[in-house]
Prior knowledge:
The complex is a heterodimer of chains A (185) and B (170). Helix content of chain A is 85%, strand content 0%. Chain A is built from nine helices and no strands. Chain A has helices at residues 2-33, 35-69, 72-80, 84-97, 102-114, 119-132, 134-145, 147-157, 160-177. The two termini of chain A are 25 Å apart. Chain B is mainly alpha-helical and 170 residues long. Chain B is built from nine helices and no strands. The two termini of chain B are 13 Å apart. Classes of the chains: A mainly alpha (185), B mainly alpha (170). Chains A and B meet through helix 1, helix 2, helix 5, helix 6 and helix 7 of A and helix 1, helix 2, helix 5, helix 6 and helix 7 of B.
Amino acid sequence: MAERRRRIRSFEWSTAIIASISVAAGVAVYLRDGTEKVLAILTKDLQLLVGMLPKMAAGCLIAAFVTRLLPREVVARVVGSESGLLGLLVAMIMGAVLPGGPLTIYPVAAAFLVLGADVGTAVAFITAWNLLGYNRALIWELPFFGPEFVGWRILIALPLPILGGLLARTAARMIAKRGGSDQWM
Amino acid sequence: MDVMMIISVVIAILLWLLVAVLAFIAAMRSKALFREGAFEGGRDFLVLIPRVMVGVVGSGYIAAVLPPDLIANWIGPNSGVIGILIATLIGAATPGGAVVGFAIGAAALKSGAGAPQVIAYSTAWSLYTIQRLLNWEIHMMAPRFVLLRAAVSFPLPILAGLGALLLGKP
């Protein structure tokens, strides 16, 4: 599948850059502080990562099963048929629950718009996917930042999808009032 | 710290319960569905470990060579709203995939950046890093939608940073 290949390739590129910067930084630490410091950083960071491995594995499995049990078409239909504040809430929950990369998420958001949802719903969905998605939080954020930081970060982000959706609605209404198009697809 | 440990263990148990429930539902639908899900989830996990490891360990070394005074001045715990704004702009400008964004955020935090500033950074990076808008979103959504979404999302990382600042957490 083109989706997978592209995603993995862009990851490799990023990982290679970070790996080379890290090796350079590691050499600098060795020259400045010696072997002990190099090992101290290595064990401290690996400890956090190892502690998070069970949650990361669970995150990967949940994502793989949800992808199969919750087809994108169903999500698009459910969210596309809701409106008002409830529509934003449903979009937010779906955004947090639906796993996958940008190539999965944007077509679903586009499908809402085609099915008649307003622009705020699509914005709430994309915002929730970015900020509340368990997939990214479990697999990426947790081993980097630890559970306390991630927990507070998500708690603080909870109202943001609704807020973004409301702002988008207001902006779209103002644009329409000034004679702008109300077509967002 | 002990309470955190208990919460952490409880969350791990709940996650694995959810895995069990989903796996059971998949198995009820068909054996093939269960096998595919379990195989793909396991493979993704194995593929991800080395990448996350590079980022996590790398962030430790990068943090050790970053100049702490500079970090503290620009985005430290006392940098306040200006620091949150700076972090938001750096977040929008960060290129690359997940490993880059998280490694930079974690390195900044380890070398003395404030938590509200790092939250603003990672929120901005998640919502509207310019490279992702241009590489992905613009090809799949109408350009005026991308523009509208980026515009209304602009204050959100600042609000998240201010929220953390007011709460005094994490």
